[in-house]
C-alpha cells in the first residue's frame, strides 16, 4: 500500500518545484510574453493617438475652409455683388411698366 504524503512532504515538494529550472523557465517565458504583448498594445494605442491627432487637425482645416466658403457665398449673394454682375450683362432697367389685366378668371370651359 502507498503511503500518504505528509503535509511537510507536500510543502517540500512545492518548494522544490518553485526552485526548479522548469518553473523558472516558464516564469521567465510568461514575463517575456506579457512584456511583448504590453509593448504591442502600447504601440497600437500610441499609433491610434497620432492618427486621431492628424484627423483632428484635418477637421479644423476643413472647418476653416467651410467658414471661408460661407463668407464667399455671402459676398456673392450681397446686393452690391448682384448689382455689379447685372451691370456687366448690358441689361436696361424698365422705366414704364404696364400690367395686363385678365378678362376672365376661368382657365378652361366646361361643355
Secondary-structure map with pairings?
Blueprint: H1 7-19, H2 21-77, H3 79-87
Description:
The chain has 111 residues and is an all-alpha fold. It has one domain. Helix content is 71%, strand content 0%. It is built from 3 helices and no strands. It is rod-shaped. The model has no long low-confidence stretch (mean pLDDT 87).
Annotation field: number of helices: 3
Beta-strand percent range: under 5%
Assembly category: single chain
Radius of gyration from CA coordinates: 44 Å
- Which geometry do the CA atoms define? rod-shaped
Measure the end-to-end span.
123 Å
Number of strands: 0
The percentage helix is over 70%
Q: Note the main sheet.
A: none
Mean pLDDT: 87
* Helix and strand element order: HHH
Q: Helix- and strand-based class?
A: mainly alpha
- Number of individual domains: 1
Low-pLDDT runs of 5+ residues are none
Task: Give a quick summary of the entry.
This protein has helices at 7-19, 21-77, 79-87. The chain has 111 residues and is mainly alpha-helical.
Write a concise keyword list for the protein shown above:
rod-shaped, single chain, 3 helices, 111 residues, 0% strand, mainly alpha
